[in-house]
Amino acid sequence: MKARIYIAALHYNENGNRQQAVTKTGILKWKSRTLKQKKESNVLSNRRKFKQPMFAIELQHRAYMFLSSTSRNTTEPVALTGSGIVFANGDDWKGRRRFLIQAMRDFGVGRSSLEEGIIEEIQNVADDLEKMKGAEITNLNEMMIKASCNVIHSLIFGYRYKHDNESLHKLIKTMDNIFSGPGSLSASGIFPVLNLIRKDFKDLKMRSEGFSTLKKYIEKHITEHRESFDPENIRDFIDMYLVAEKEESERTSVLNPMALLTSIIDLFAAGTYTTATTLDWSFLWMIQYPDVQKRCQEEITKVIGLGRMVRLSDRRHLSYTEATLMEIQRLSNTAIFALPHVAVCDTTINGFKIPKNTIIIPSLISAHFDETIWRDPKEFNPGRFLNQNNDIINKEYLIPFSLGPRICPGESLARSELFLIFSNLLHRFEFSKVDPCDILSFDGITGLTMTPSPYRLKADLR
Ligand code: HEM
């Protein structure tokens, strides 16, 4: 097996000082390890299941010296660094990640309550679209952010907002102020000092204020949960955390009040914009390829009929629609890069020496566009994910959620949201360009996620 991974690497010395800027931007061919290679590396041999050494144990550590400028620009996030999940390491990370996965099982994926919640969001978005009565829509992204933010909100706090609720608007505005801006591979992401040279203090102030507003909002909910906590009625992520916190406190400090606060920030940051942006891309592709949209709609109508909504249990019968979503994720690359990893010991991968403390940012997009893996990789072709019987072929090189020990723990939740929202909206609406002559751009804008350039579309009831 081989896949091409481009890496951008920074190397820090033992004292944490940057030795060189980008030392390597190369193309590596990763091959599955031979038995001989496995024997040579004690560390790797413990992790047989990870096919790509890049994502194996040596690189499961998160590099938190190398935060995106988004986080570097305020003092608060730096203080919070390592206390949640995304930037934690070692036993703290393991314990909190395990807890999150358990909480998602209890309150999320596979639970009818989660599905009902997503269906409610679809209804909200559909109402918003219907109000437009086939007129030009330029804020689809905003509608999707409200929906995905509400899903995370209800998982964590146990309730959701109506889409026209002022508190939801404020929450999203606050998150926009914090998380929008250049991503980790922008010049100011690599050299945060540039922000100071540019004297972009207005931006810094906005982010700093955004963080304290978000912190207060979350703290208020945690306090309310502590006051109304009933061990017989566990309502959501926070309640589960309070139970675990009590059990854990005698043994370890993995789950503690600061970790709860930061984990919640992590979940909003990691789970809102990623899902919303992928949905935003989805409808851009659909108006560019009306024939694909029509085929999805025909499949959905054939399987579901007209009288009900698409459910998760319909997924296995909707292979063309599922394949279309896979192709959208391959080409859209909402997360172009995984988050920064760091080598915990000297290692050599396919001849490339990676010294201890080297920061590795795996490029997911390069795997998705590799012409040695995909035929005509730039072509939009959902059929590449279907076999002759029209069944889904799960291609291991489709890695929008990354790979290995740090793989996105929200994958199942995100995939459920993507499937339900995409298929139900296609079932109900016909999406099209406002003017058939509109030329759409597929050059994304890079930031925390890669978003589509602003576009307009129409949604008519089918
Ligand atoms: C389409 C939607 C999503 C995409 C494309 C996506 C993608 C990713 C990627 C590429 C990573 C980095 C993995 C690495 O460093 O190797 C990641 C990490 C993470 N994601 Fe997601 N994600 C999505 C949705 C979600 C959702 C809904 C949640 C919340 C429940 C979530 C929570 C997280 C967390 C907590 C991490 C850090 C994991 C760790 O450090 O162990 N993500 N995601």
From TrEMBL:
<comment type="similarity">
    <text>Belongs to the cytochrome P450 family.</text>
</comment>
<dbReference type="InterPro" id="IPR002401">
    <property type="entry name" value="Cyt_P450_E_grp-I"/>
</dbReference>
<keyword id="KW-0408">Iron</keyword>
<feature type="binding site" description="axial binding residue">
    <location>
        <position position="408"/>
    </location>
    <ligand>
        <name>heme</name>
    </ligand>
</feature>
<dbReference type="GO" id="GO:0016705">
    <property type="term" value="F:oxidoreductase activity, acting on paired donors, with incorporation or reduction of molecular oxygen"/>
</dbReference>
<dbReference type="InterPro" id="IPR036396">
    <property type="entry name" value="Cyt_P450_sf"/>
</dbReference>
<dbReference type="GO" id="GO:0020037">
    <property type="term" value="F:heme binding"/>
</dbReference>
<dbReference type="InterPro" id="IPR050182">
    <property type="entry name" value="Cytochrome_P450_fam2"/>
</dbReference>
<dbReference type="GO" id="GO:0004497">
    <property type="term" value="F:monooxygenase activity"/>
</dbReference>
<dbReference type="InterPro" id="IPR001128">
    <property type="entry name" value="Cyt_P450"/>
</dbReference>
<keyword id="KW-0560">Oxidoreductase</keyword>
<protein>
    <submittedName>
        <fullName>CYP2K</fullName>
    </submittedName>
</protein>
<keyword id="KW-0349">Heme</keyword>
<dbReference type="Pfam" id="PF00067">
    <property type="entry name" value="p450"/>
</dbReference>
<keyword id="KW-0479">Metal-binding</keyword>
<dbReference type="GO" id="GO:0005506">
    <property type="term" value="F:iron ion binding"/>
</dbReference>
<dbReference type="InterPro" id="IPR017972">
    <property type="entry name" value="Cyt_P450_CS"/>
</dbReference>
<keyword id="KW-0503">Monooxygenase</keyword>
